[in-house]
């Protein structure tokens, strides 16, 4: 029987951020809140309408050092590293190649990852000029998201499949004295009462292959290397099923196209086999071609408490104070740290 005296928390969105917020709330405040997750798409859906099932879902460096993002990613990296025993993540070696020699002083993440070292010239393939190696984590979203949902259900979290168009509707579901967490990703752009014009998509196209001989992540720096058409290169071994590897990819800002582009797929395959010739064997089988839209935001993520007078009166988001950073488009690798920061806002109520 549900205790009605608990304060009701409604989380909009069942992607990795929404699910992780629910997990942190039910861990930190197991008897203070009843939690409902409301979403059009749920973790068992393989839907292009939200990004979480299609994510690379590994830890990889993105952009310059930002102390706020570093804190989120440090928390998340350690959390995922310790989840390896559950079979939900795997700890794998990783290499990143650069078009210039490595300046260790600029590698802000060398103390975040494990086993960091600079590659010797003999270990760096042409045409690259330098490289680094470290141990990182990878996650399989299509295993991890259903696990999170099952765990939350066992904690009493209720899942409701419903598309919310207006923040007023979410407040009505939360009820008197209720709390709403907006974790809608790209949906924040069109959610009435939020309508954040700084939110935009980053199109990612990948190939999932069976390649049991590929045991490590390999990449160019994703945000430093895209060609003018958004092409980049990375490969990510999955923790399960055995031998599954994600080949990428693209980083195409403001591109809403969710269809497969087979010219891009050919370029992904060509770059991947050049980086790791072991892919180009009879053992490698293509399993699927994938396209997802990463949610990104100009100025970085917005994690703050906002009081709204209902019904919402139309207002410009430019008038609202925002916390800004350089981060965007990597929900998994900051998920636990971002969720903890969001849940800390409950103490301000």
Question: What do you see in this structure?
Answer:
This protein has helices at 16-28, 67-81, 141-154, 167-174, 262-275, 331-344, and strands at 7-12, 33-39, 89-98, 114-118, 130-139, 158-161, 179-182, 199-210, 217-219, 231-237, 244-250, 252-253, 285-297. It has 349 residues and is of the alpha/beta class. It folds into two domains: 7-52 and 142-197 and 312-348, 3-Layer(aba) Sandwich (Rossmann fold), CATH 3.40.50.720; 74-139 and 200-297, D-Amino Acid Oxidase, Chain A, domain 2. It is globular.
Short précis:
With 349 residues, the chain is α/β, with parallel strands linked by helices. The chain is built from six helices and 13 strands. This is FAD dependent oxidoreductase domain-containing protein.
Overview features:
349 residues, alpha/beta, Rossmann fold, D-Amino Acid Oxidase, Chain A, domain 2, nine-stranded mixed sheet, oxidoreductase, DAO, FAD
| Percent helix | 10-25%
The second-level CATH architecture of the largest domain is: 2-Layer Sandwich
H and E order: EHEHEEEHEHEEEEEEHEH
Distance between the termini: 26 Å
Name of the level-1 CATH class of the largest domain: Alpha Beta
Number of helices: 6
Output the CATH homologous superfamily of the largest domain: D-Amino Acid Oxidase, subunit A, domain 2
Q: What are the segments in which pLDDT stays under 50 over at least 5 consecutive residues?
A: 314-328
CATH topology of the largest domain: D-Amino Acid Oxidase, Chain A, domain 2
Major sheet, described briefly? Answer: 9 strands, mixed
Structural class: alpha/beta
* Number of DSSP-assigned strands: 13
Q: Per DSSP, what share of the residues sits in E-state strands of 2 or more residues?
A: 25-35%
Tell me the overall shape.
globular
Binding site for FAD: 184
Family: Belongs to the DAMOX/DASOX family.
Organism: Meripilus lineatus
GO molecular function: D-amino-acid oxidase activity; FAD binding
């Amino acid at each position: 029987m549900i205790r009605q005296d608990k304060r009701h928390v409604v989380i909009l969105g069942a992607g990795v951020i929404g699910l992780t917020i629910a997990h942190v709330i039910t861990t930190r405040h197991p008897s203070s809140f009843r939690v409902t997750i409301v979403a059009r798409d749920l973790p068992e859906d393989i839907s292009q309408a939200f990004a979480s099932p299609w994510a690379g879902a590994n830890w990889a460096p993105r952009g310059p050092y930002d102390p706020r993002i570093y804190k989120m990613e440090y928390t998340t990296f350690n959390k995922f590293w310790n989840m390896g025993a559950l079979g939900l993540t795997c700890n794998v070696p990783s290499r990143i190649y650069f078009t210039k020699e490595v300046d260790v002083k600029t590698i802000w993440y060398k103390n975040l990852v494990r086993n960091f070292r600079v590659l010797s010239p003999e270990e760096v393939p042409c045409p690259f000029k330098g490289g680094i190696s470290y141990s990182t984590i990878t996650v399989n979203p299509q295993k991890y998201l259903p696990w999170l949902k099952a765990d939350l259900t066992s904690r009493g979290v209720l899942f409701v499949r419903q598309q919310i168009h207006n923040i007023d509707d979410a407040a009505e579901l939360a009820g008197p004295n209720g709390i709403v967490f907006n974790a809608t990703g790209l949906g924040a752009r069109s959610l009435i009462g939020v309508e954040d014009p700084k939110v935009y998509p980053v199109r990612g196209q990948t190939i999932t292959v069976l390649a049991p001989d590929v045991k490590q992540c390999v990449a160019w720096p994703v945000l430093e290397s895209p060609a003018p058409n958004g092409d980049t290169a990375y490969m990510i071994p999955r923790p399960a099923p055995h031998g599954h590897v994600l080949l990428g990819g693209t980083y195409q800002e403001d591109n809403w196209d969710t269809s497969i582009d087979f010219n891009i797929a050919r370029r992904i395959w060509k770059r991947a086999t050049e980086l790791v010739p072991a892919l180009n064997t009879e053992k490698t089988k293509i399993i699927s071609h994938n396209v997802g839209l990463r949610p990104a935001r100009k100025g970085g993520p917005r994690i703050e408490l906002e009081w709204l007078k209902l019904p919402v009166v139309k207002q410009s988001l430019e008038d609202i104070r925002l916390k800004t950073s350089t981060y965007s488009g990597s929900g998994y690798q900051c998920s636990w740290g971002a969720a903890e920061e969001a849940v800390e806002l409950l103490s301000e109520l």
